What we know:
Layout: E1 4-9, H1 15-27, E2 31-32, E3 34-35, E4 38-42, H2 52-69, E5 76-81, E6 87-92, H3 96-106
Parallel strand pairs: 1-2
Antiparallel strand pairs: 1-5, 3-4, 5-6
Helix pairs in contact: 1-3
Amino acid sequence: MAKLHAVLYTKPHCMLCKMTPKLRDSLGLPYENTYYGNSEQTNSIELDSKDISKREWSEKKVEKLKAKYQITSLPLIKIIDDETEKVLDVWSGFVPDKIKFWNSKIN
């Protein structure tokens, strides 16, 4: 079995952003929701954050994600091969079939 994990980008108060990790948790698919390995900071996109560094990070991240993946909504999910660090799949929104598909690849 492949060693995979997902990287999630979410935003607060987004129902689809909350449903995605909930389904992943129920299936046992590992994921990261932190950036640069900093467990104190999440990948939550917070454009209205009172924390200036979080707000600036969010603004830059939104522009990068839009440019790289042509997304218009969150959550954004990337499936990463742990051995090669290659991005195997990317999508935005709550897509249970994709979550279940990738879960079947590791279990």
